[in-house]
Amino acid sequence: MVKITCGKVGLVALGFLAGTVGVKLLSSREAKKAYAHITAASIRAKDCVVKRATIIQENCGDILADAKKINAEIAAKQEAEAKAVEDATE
Prior knowledge:
By secondary structure, the protein is mostly helical.
């Protein structure tokens, strides 16, 4: 046989009551308004982060293009110097 005490039943009842009140509070008009404001702020934050990431990505693309150009110029210069040395030795 299971022995149930008044304290355990009271705790279950209190938990049920707290859960019911909690659901009522979380689904109230004011709570829904707060959820909407929090969601709107989250969307604005996401948009800001995406905008910043796009700017950084574009800057990285520009830096990469400049680096490739610099490397191409250095390679052309080295090739011209090597050809000059080769012509001088002939």
